Amino acid sequence: MKKAITVALAGNPNVGKTTLFNTLTGSRQHVGNWPGVTVEKKEGIREYSGRTIEVTDLPGTYSLTAYSADEVVARNFIIEDRPDVVVQVVDASNLERNLYLTMQLAELGRPVIIALNMVDVAEGRGDTIDEKRLAELLAMPVIRTVGTSGEGLLDLLDAVVAIAAKGEKHTHTIGYGDDAEALISDLVGILDDDPDLAPRYPLRWLAVRLIEGDADIRRVVSGSSVGDAVSARLADIDFDEYEATLADKRYEAIGAILPQACTICVRKMTGSDMIDRVVTNKYLGIPIFLALMWGAFQLTFAVAEPFMAGIEYIFGWLGEGVAASVGPEWLASLLGDGVIGGVGGVLVFVPNIFILFLILSILEGSGYLARGAFIMDRLMYAIGLPGKSFIPMLMGFGCNVPAIMSTRTIEDERDRLITILVNPFISCGARLPVYILFAGVFFGRDAGNVIFGMYILGILVAILSAKLFRSTVLPGESSPFIMEMPPYRIPTLKNALLNMWEKGSTYLKKAGGIILIGSLIVWFLASYPAGVGYGSEESFAGMIGKFVEPLVAPLGLDWKIAVALIFGFVAKEIVVSSLGVLYGAEEGSAALSDALLADPALSAAGALAVMVFVLLYMPCVATLAVIKKETGSWRWAGFSVLYGLVVAWSLAFVTFHVAGFFLGGA
Amino acid sequence: MSPPDPLPIPLDTVITGEKARVVSVRAKGQLRKRLLEMGIIPGAIIESIRVAPLGDPVEFRVKGYNLSIRKGDASCIEVVMEVE
Amino acid sequence: MSEYQKRIFAALLGVLYLLAGAATIIAVAIPEIGIFEVLGISGDPAGGFILIVIGGTLFYGYLELSKGIHEGVAFLHVGIALALVFGMIQLLSTGAEFATMALFEDEAITLGMLREEIVPVLYLALIALAGFIAWGKEFSAGLLRG
Fold this sequence. Notes:
The complex is a heterotrimer.
Chain A: E1 5-11, H1 17-25, E2 29-33, E3 40-48, E4 51-57, H2 69-80, E5 85-91, H3 95-107, E6 112-117, H4 119-124, E7 128-129, H5 131-138, E8 142-144, H6 153-166, H7 178-191, H8 197-200, H9 203-211, H10 215-222, H11 227-233, H12 239-261, E9 262-263, H13 271-279, H14 285-302, H15 305-325, H16 329-347, H17 350-366, H18 368-382, H19 390-395, H20 400-405, H21 413-422, H22 432-443, H23 447-471, E10 482-484, H24 493-527, H25 540-552, H26 559-567, H27 574-582, H28 590-598, H29 604-616, H30 621-631, H31 634-663
Parallel strand pairs in A: 1-4, 1-5, 5-6, 6-8
Antiparallel strand pairs in A: 2-3, 3-4, 7-9
Helix pairs in contact in A: 3-12, 5-12, 7-9, 14-17, 15-16, 16-24, 17-24, 21-23, 22-23, 22-28, 22-29, 23-29, 24-30, 25-26, 26-27, 29-31, 30-31
Chain B: E1 9-10, E2 19-25, H1 29-37, E3 45-51, E4 58-62, E5 65-69, H2 71-74, E6 77-81
Antiparallel strand pairs in B: 1-6, 2-3, 2-6, 3-4, 4-5
Chain C: H1 2-29, H2 34-38, H3 45-66, H4 73-104, H5 111-116, H6 120-144
Helix pairs in contact in C: 1-3, 1-6, 3-4, 4-6
């Protein structure tokens, strides 16, 4: 058996790379993260003419200047993993900008093949492309492909196998003009003196990156034996100037090639422009966006309902079965309250997550998501976030878990982190039962206004926190908003479903374990030491409740509420059922309301403080798991818990005393 | 040589529907890199095609595709009006 | 000729949606208007907003076409698309609700309950569907041209 051929799939965002990857590898793919970063890594395998071809889907990038995690990943993969072939998927209807990446890929020294995608779109609007001539001019194979139908796929595979068999390097690069070229050859000469560099990097590429002021590469070279010599040569160089010159030369080279190989039809008004006139219309743009977001929200949560009910039904049935048939009481409780309750808590969100990702991938695939960001950017910029943060914020009102997962569409890592960290303050659906209980009991006719106030408070805290994070822990301007507005396309169901399955199942795998462990810890605290009633005063949870009572006393709360809040960590709606247990009342019955009203420790001001605390105090375990997964570290998850607790305590304290002043009872 | 260029103006002042030619990109760092690689290089023809409903950002057409840029960022790009 | 038909269609359907939307919002304040029940209108601010957005888009198309702006036809197409999308969302939500009731809550679905689900966003979408059948091809062809 011959060695497998490794292929890296590169390309700009929105060129149909994912579609091509899916048709290329079928179902034989798996998703992981690149080591150390949260960028997704997709790999798939294809058997072709007796060879195994391993395809790695690189993140979509416009260039390889490596200022975002995506670009660093793409560049490092090509340089360090040395794939046998790099296939660049190119959008034929947007050749000029797409070929910029080609110019950079060519410098990396690996053989490059162009998969010319969307030729149907380009030719449909009157462009003509002579791919043979293009291949000659670029000195690399150019294969026509149609990702959706699989056309050209076999030609592409033939080209991959052929080029891998030859095993040549790609040596054809463009010239950057006399001045830059003199500098480049000087640098190559210096770099060549270090025997370690040449085997690891194409030297010409290193030199080019150095004069473009690439900080990463500068660090690599500074650490080598020729670091000082390089620094000396680069001492009085205007990097900005060279950067512009090199970019200019690349586009110049493209400009010289294109007219020889294709004619581009100049368009006045395209179909996309027609749609954009409507959806970004001065008066209708925002209402249409809000309407569509409401629709997405409605679909996510309404359509998931029967599936969620089904999952709850199955787990309820399992729980009863365990309670009835498992011998030792502690084991029945462990399985029933701990494992089944915990796993059920994860799975119940799964329909939401799957449907949300289906909708998001349809919105993104159609090109509308970019318009949404365009429309909302001004508003979000005011609170220091990019336009794309709007969707996660909105989704947060349903459930923070899919909301945080939807931040994947935000390119800038810091913007994304801030959006993730403030999301738990958006009041999710699970908190509503708590408000309904307390507001209903203590505020009667004003309950609706009080609940509405909670939602507003959540939004305010999210906005202020975003501003705070922007100016302290994650400083810097919100990233420049330079976004391609892709033409509209009709998304394919197959891709949307694949995308949904991929993201949904990753959530299950990654978050499931954490949630299970969290649930088990809470179960343990509520059940031990041996022989105590579940969640009673004598249990560890009760002891913790008693222990922290002095902490919540300034908020007008006693140990019972403290215990309920601890349970609420598993899922916030559990606060209500826990109170039922603690007050010895059936959930949902009038008895709990009466018991709360009769409790001398609780006042109307205290009830407000509870609601504020539940709104803000910390993400539930499922949200925490997803924060950990999406930020790639426990640090941010821990930060989110601490920050939440501090904010919740402070605001609950203020609420209790201010409300106490007006309502009495403080 | 062509006659001397008129005085350059910042890109964000170009009216919707008008075309201009990029003279210089005065941005620094990340913004500069991003603009250059997206094809906003001296000499490029850029057309303002649409303003977002809230007045910012602005959508431009450059190198045959559409790109949206915030006015604040666009003000770093100096252009001269292109007469058709 | 065809553009004249489109103009009339946009105006009529736009006005119907706008009226239905206004009624849905009015019904929040004054629920006991007799004709509302017949038309399946009940107070719902968000639902009313959706209807008004669809109606507004269609009517805007009518205004542009009347001014002789040919591109106004895009408002008609997007309006029809929105009408269909929200009709579909309504259908799916209702289906999900009934499925939950029938499968897990042991509630029988009565004819009266079905009757209650015949709401403007659903039956007006049928008219939009007629428009889509008439002009949909031209719309998606325009889309694919880029």
